[in-house]
Amino acid sequence: MVYKTAGAEPLTMQPWIESFFNGRSAVLRALALAIFCALLPLTHDARAAETEAEAKAAAAATAHAVPGFWDPRRRPERPDLSRLTVIRFLTETDYPPFNFTGADGNPAGFNVDLARALCEEIKVTCTVQMRRFETLLDALASNRGDAIIASLAVTPQTRGKVDFTDSYYRAPGRFAARKDAVMPEIRPEYLEGKKVGAIAGSAHEAYLKAMFTDAELHSYPNDEALRAAVKRGEVDFIFGDSISLAFWINGTDSENCCAFSGGPFTESRYFGEGVGIAVRRGNDLLRQSLNWALFRVWEKGRYTDLWLRYFSVSPF
């Protein structure tokens, strides 16, 4: 038997060594086969455990999935940001976890933190002013602010009044009820004669008026009043934004009173094509700048961080 090594003379194995290996080859092959067969179940079990771990990880990722609205292949062009000197954001006073007053008395919430991230990306001074939701569009039109970041749905009606950035999240409408009155499915005929609450002037109220005509509609000025109504039995169901309702249902304020009833409602005619930042019509510089900043915030992972911080409970 001859072996070769790089840059050296061939090495010849001594006859007695060659005889030793040839005589033992059958034994060695048998031993190797036995070891392989013994280890095979262990390998299978290890792979099964690995597969199970991967499945659990995938399930966890799905449970906390972050919506994606941006295509990395469609990077927006960087506008002339030097023309922006300040952005005055308008937001709502009471719509947690999107907008609310923080412990320090300042605006807080997902929308507020996103606005701050956009301003950091654009490198421009920004202010955030909180107003009642029904006054936001008038405030923008009268130049008391530059942009609305308040979970304003993109619909044909709102498009007729303002221009929107790209959507940065979507939320279906859902019903909630006291736990002893939950329905697995909700249809208009199921709520005939039932008392149903919604926020006055909201898309959810408009949807109820159009689709649930046999229900007894009760309108409330804000989420706090709406949720209190279902807790004390003033209404049988409430209908609202699924994300906000999910946080309330799973939070301490609900006192474990209520649960989702039926599935999500996603009609774009009422709940829009998503939620965007509204600017005055024709303000293309600001709209394009915010679109560019939204993409950058998403690309850098800051959007994901914000989403997971505020939306660990599934609204769907």
Describe the model.
- Pfam families: SBP_bac_3 (PF00497).
- This is Amino acid ABC transporter substrate-binding protein, PAAT family.
- Keywords: Signal.
- InterPro entries: Solute-binding_3/MltF_N (IPR001638).
- This protein is α/β, with parallel strands linked by helices and 316 residues long.
- The protein folds into three domains: 63 residues; 129 residues, Periplasmic binding protein-like II (D-Maltodextrin-Binding Protein, domain 2), CATH 3.40.190.10; 98 residues, D-Maltodextrin-Binding Protein, domain 2 (3-Layer(aba) Sandwich), CATH 3.40.190.10.
- It is 41% helix and 18% strand.
- It has ten helices and 14 strands.
- Strands 6-3-7-14-8 form a five-stranded mixed β-sheet. It has a five-stranded mixed β-sheet with strand order 11-10-12-9-13, sandwiched between helices. A two-stranded antiparallel sheet has the order 1-2.
- Strand 10, helix 5 and strand 11 form a beta-alpha-beta unit.
- Helix 2 crosses helix 9.
- The radius of gyration is 31 Å and the shape is elongated.
- The relative contact order is 0.15.
- The N terminus is likely disordered.
Layout of strands and helices, then pairs:
Layout: E1 2-3, E2 11-12, H1 15-63, E3 86-92, E4 100-101, E5 107-108, H2 110-122, E6 125-131, H3 136-141, E7 147-148, H4 156-159, E8 163-164, E9 173-178, E10 195-199, H5 203-211, E11 216-220, H6 223-231, E12 237-241, H7 242-250, E13 258-265, H8 268-271, E14 278-279, H9 284-299, H10 302-310
Parallel strand pairs: 3-6, 3-7, 10-11, 10-12
Antiparallel strand pairs: 1-2, 4-5, 7-14, 8-14, 9-12, 9-13
Helix pairs in contact: 2-9, 2-10
Protein name: Amino acid ABC transporter substrate-binding protein, PAAT family
Domain Solute-binding protein family 3/N-terminal: 86-314
Keywords: Signal
